[in-house]
Design a protein that fits this description.
By secondary structure, the protein is an alpha/beta fold. The protein contains 11 helices and 9 strands.
Amino acid sequence: MHEPPRISIANLPTPLVPLDRLSARLNGAAILLKRDDLTGLETSGNKVRKLEYVVAEAIAAGCDTLVTEGTPQSNHCRATAAACARSGLRCVLLLRPEPHGAPQGNHLLDVLFGAEIRSYPRPQFDEQRETIVAGVLEELRAAGRRPRWTPMGASDPLGCWGYIRGIAELAVQIHARGIQACDLLVAVSSGGTYAGLLLGKLLHRLTHVALWGVPVSDDVAHHQRLAAGLCRATIAQYALPIEFHESDLAFVDGYVGPGYARPYPAALAAIRELASSEAIVLDPVYTGKAFCALLDGARGGRFGRERPVIFIHTGGIFSDFAWPEQLASERR
Ligand SMILES: Cc1ncc(COP(=O)(O)O)c(C=O)c1O
């Protein structure tokens, strides 16, 4: 097994904290939060763990520019722009759909971090994605630059290392708290966080941790295919000494709502619930939806009764500022 090199840009380890005030509201369900929203301020969230490996590989390969894609409110794009600024790399972001109005939330931070932004109407980008990406890389090379492409969410075998390492960090904290067994919940979209956690769980033999992915963008069948493919590719690429079976995958279904980046009232209520009980802020696209699964499970007795449940707060706070009406409208 060969762990690829990484640079250190995240504040690690992130804290594992009990949510006592929220637990009291939920009849004493034992709930803890792994605060990966605190991996850094500007570079906050789950993507930073992945980018530690991506940036290290880019620098080792002599690249001077990272190129990636996402929506204007993409946490991955913002974290990539921040990681580049901090590491002396340039960053090119391919955004779709085209942002409207003054930049806000993550998009505003992209601009402040000095990212070069190219934006595209969504149908054009979706239809011509490969041609557009190849064209941008070619254009940069022709201008004498050495670009490196990073896929959406940095969810490739290299990016998976962020959470292969992340779950080992969490396992030490679980042990230090004397927790014998627990459930572990995380939001799933491009899949690298969940796949990394699962690979790390298998690698470090964490049989006492029951890992659940909560899809927030697509159906479970899609995420099963995605995660299985990523796990197999990572095992092959890095010769991980583990066996992966599809039966290792476990998801909590029912929290996508009307679609990706389309928050629904229960997700907004979950954000308000945690903010008003613990002063910790989730986001409307990923963590708010996934936290609904935890709240429903805690209320219904599935989570936090027989054993504690841990939620990985994967970040995303900046996109709250792009949804002010929705978040404020149902205030109690
Ligand atoms: C805040 C936040 N949480 C969770 C996720 C999901 O992680 P992944 O894309 O690795 O599945 C993302 C990124 O997509 C994110 O930005």
